[in-house]
Amino acid sequence: MNLSKQYMPLPKHLSEIMMLFCKHNNLRQPFRLKSTVKCSDISYCVDLVRKSDYENYLGTLLLPKSSQRAAFAIRAFNIELAQVRDTVSERRIGLMRMQFLKDAMDKIYQSEIPNTPVATELAGACGYYKLSKRWFHRMIDARTSLLHSDSFNTVKDVEDYAENVNSSLYYLLLECLGIKNIHSDHAASHLGKAQGIVTVLRASPYHASVRQVQIPMEILTKHKISQEDIIRGKSSQPLKDAVFELASTANLHLTKSRSLMSSLPQGCYLAFLNACVCDHYLKSLQKVDFNIFDGKLQQKNPLLAYQMFIKKLRRQY
User: Fold this and answer.
1) Burial of residue 3, with CB atoms counted within 10 A of its CB: 0-12 exposed, 13-18 middle, 19 or more buried
2) Lower CB count within 10 Å: N or C terminus of the chain?
3) Of 42, 35, 28, 33, whose CA–CA distance to 7 is shortest?
């Protein structure tokens, strides 16, 4: 069955941006559909992103309506990949789950749609927007590699992982927006790396609670920090120096991505609005003197929706 023929993206007129600040009751059926496409599939993807990745949920609402449906499917697929590592008790089971998701993606491109909500939605998006299969495979392979190792050896390892996961997702969003441009890809690459490094820093308290450390070993060794100190949640000046070094690398990537804004095609900034998340965390981290265990860093940004909305009005990110 070719779902791309039944796939109907949202109309291209202006999106109701202020729904960000209202209850999202209407999101149960946010798309105009053919009767043969189950609304539950769409609702599942939207709800999964809203519950598991609220920051990117807000950013997706600010995309043009014509791209929102596909973007929610892509985000939902990324969440399914990310959840494998946290929900399986054995590595072997995780690898089997990843292979299942990879096989499902291959079947989508062979017009054999697996009977799952996310796969059904992705099938329509891939057919309609001609999304590149290689970006999905890079995301899957990178997530799978993390099942084999709980840590990164170098900063470059983190950057490569972020390029394969975060940047690949941005490349897909750009394809949904109909943008194919070398400057856009360059900006997406740097933003993805910034986001990946920030994620490592933000998740450090959680990882420590499950006796994992993802701060690169080369930085820990350089500053003479033991993994056990981090697992104990012990902040120290050497650890602050290490966090500062890693955060500075993230900030360099974020700054480089933003420096390309003037050369980007019209509408490209819409895919990158969640740069506000990285920017807010890095500034908050600086305010607490780079103590990654400070409880203030775990608080949600109540102004995030407003900040994203303002960036959209200014055609910035």
Assistant:
1) buried
2) N
3) 33
Instruction: Count CB atoms within 10 A of the CB of residue 124.
Output: 27
| Max CA separation in the chain (angstroms) | 62
* Rounded CA separation 279/132 (Å): 29
DSSP string, 134-190: HHHHHHHHHHHHHHH-SS-SSHHHHHHHHIIIIIHHHHHHHHHTT---HHHHHHHHH
Q: Tell me what pLDDT residue 5 has.
A: 53
Q: What type of residue is 38?
A: K
Name the nearest CA neighbour of 297 among 305, 308, 288: 288
Number of Cβ atoms within 10 Å of the Cβ of 46: 26
**DSSP assignment letter at 15:** P
Q: Which two tokens stand for residue 225?
A: 């920090």
Cα dihedral sign for 276, 278, 280, 286?
A: negative
Q: Per-residue pLDDT for 31 more than 80?
A: no
Task: Give the integer Cα–Cα distance in Å for 82 and 88.
Answer: 11
* Residue the block writes with tokens 């973007």: 71
Q: Which of 33, 34, 38 is nearest to 113 (CA)?
A: 38
Q: What is the CA radius of gyration of the chain?
A: 20
What is d(CA 9, CA 159) in angstroms, rounded to the nearest whole number? Answer: 33
- Mark 89-114 as b/e (b = at least 16 C-beta within 10 Å): eeeeebeebbeebbebbeebeeeebb
Question: Of 312, 189, 186, 202, nearest to 247 (Cα)?
Answer: 202
User: Could you identify the residue written with the tokens 């043969």?
Assistant: 36
Q: What is the pTM of this model?
A: 0.89
Block residue for tokens 């980007």: 264
Mind listing the pLDDT tens digit for each residue in 272-302?
999 999 999 999 999 999 999 999 999 999 9
d(CA 197, CA 165): 12
Residues 186, 21: Cα–Cα separation, whole Å: 32
